[in-house]
Amino acid sequence: MTLYLLHIIYLVALAAEAMTAALAAGRRSMDWVGVILLACITGLGGGSVRDLLLNHHPLSWVGSPELLLVTGGAAILTIIIARHMYKLQRVFLFLDAVGLVVFSIIGSNIAIGLDQPFLVVIAAGMITGCVGGVLRDILCNDVPLLFRAELYATVSVITVVIFAGGGRLGLDHNIVLLFALGVGLCMRLLALRFGWSMPKFVYKHDLH
Amino acid sequence: MTLYLLHIIYLVALAAEAMTAALAAGRRSMDWVGVILLACITGLGGGSVRDLLLNHHPLSWVGSPELLLVTGGAAILTIIIARHMYKLQRVFLFLDAVGLVVFSIIGSNIAIGLDQPFLVVIAAGMITGCVGGVLRDILCNDVPLLFRAELYATVSVITVVIFAGGGRLGLDHNIVLLFALGVGLCMRLLALRFGWSMPKFVYKHDLH
Amino acid sequence: MTLYLLHIIYLVALAAEAMTAALAAGRRSMDWVGVILLACITGLGGGSVRDLLLNHHPLSWVGSPELLLVTGGAAILTIIIARHMYKLQRVFLFLDAVGLVVFSIIGSNIAIGLDQPFLVVIAAGMITGCVGGVLRDILCNDVPLLFRAELYATVSVITVVIFAGGGRLGLDHNIVLLFALGVGLCMRLLALRFGWSMPKFVYKHDLH
């Protein structure tokens, strides 16, 4: 039942990711088709890369093409209601945090189902949570936020370690799930609120 | 027979895509090996991504490595005759349009052969038609033209919808093929001629 | 026995690639998690892309997740000892050259084991040797060095042609291996020392 709930939250988070990607596209004045494509790639790219790397076919959107309607529809909705969306900024930041955490948990859960070793489970969770945003930033020609932003990747890895570690210790699945979800979400929201970030590595010599 | 003709057109379009990629490489003063690599990636990248996503192995160039000779040879030819190529600008824009439409049709035809649902067929066609150019733009460190240019992605999606939709309605295969080819090609050439473009989505608020 | 030695050299080269990627991350002031991720992607990305394209599963790091500890550990070590690393610049350039040559040989050897045709063997070697650095450059938002730098891709292709060609001619495996390793390494080091480069293709007309 908790996994069913997780699926509902996944669809909401997928739409939210697609909408933030559509806004990023709008900031670069892309045309409507470009907006829809960027939304689909951002929302579904992380899971696709994970499935390719783990040889887990069919990919989510190949097996359930209606997911393309969710991301594409969210992009079109964004274009229509864009002028009111700055009011919803806080809602979006919250949904984006939910997306990061839920995508990470779902991704690691798939790797667990494939009996992958622990490190691969962690990697699968992080890839699912973070790669969509990296693809968005590459296609917008930015240095991916992931490598700089407030605890984004860190939240993903901690969420996954709690979820996969708790499962490995034989704890109750639903409790572990809710605990991982809660910790990840709190960390991300507190990081946003207080501007927390990981220490930076600054190196000024050129190798050549 | 029409499919055989399509294969010939495919090889010509593949060479044309490789040549436009080689010119893009020349505009950034890449070295000869870089030119050849960029031409191969641009020409064969779209089909490779489609085949990876659909788990359709071997990839075209793995099964038919002589395709690498077509793209690599086209790149070398471009380096040799570059100083005369600006005279052929119109020929290239025409061949580039042919490439877009033919790649899109071939890509969707492969998904149809794999019994994929309609939305996946559309996606497969668009990926085949458009991803090569996206990879070229990313490797040249540009925002991909796809997200801005005159009807590029739109032409691909309309071509594929006609081709795959006509097939689904049970219409004669050859007629549907030629009709999709004609409509796509005309749209792209008219868009180039008259500067048609999709409406842009402009959004000026920052999310953070 | 030579292949066992090659595996040891591979692990050293993998750590070296991860460390140069970590330095590139430091030059862009990425945070610690970003540094570790970039190191893993750079070190293991080339082999992963090769395995995806050849449908060769599981990927190296999925089958042997301890490779993630090698690249991640090398990144953390780099952060700790960074202030002393400019003294080791020559060591790094040497290890980077070793990495290029060894990755290329190992990649082509895997394609040979899969009975791929000669052109695909060459491509597999080049992809393994070069794609990690291309991914690093894309994620740092640079035009990939590969398309410009001193004989980088050229060294990879020549190494692989010697290694795979010698094997095809039935020459002794160990001798061919050492000869390919030696020629590739010398070429790369001489190119670095004397600033050798391939001729550039310069094209100044715009297509549109």
Automatic annotation (TrEMBL), chains A, B, C:
Keywords: Cell membrane, Membrane, Transmembrane, Transmembrane helix. It holds the Pfam family Gly_transporter. InterPro entries: Gly_transporter. The chain crosses the membrane at residues 6-25, 32-49, 61-82, 91-112, 118-139, 151-169, 175-196. It is found in: Cell membrane. It is a multi-pass membrane protein. One of its GO terms (cellular component) is plasma membrane. Residues 8-82, 94-164 form the Glycine transporter domain. Its main location: membrane. The keyword Acyltransferase does not apply. PANTHER family: INNER MEMBRANE PROTEIN, UPF0126 INNER MEMBRANE PROTEIN YADS-RELATED. Belongs to the UPF0126 family. This is Membrane protein. It comes from Martelella endophytica.
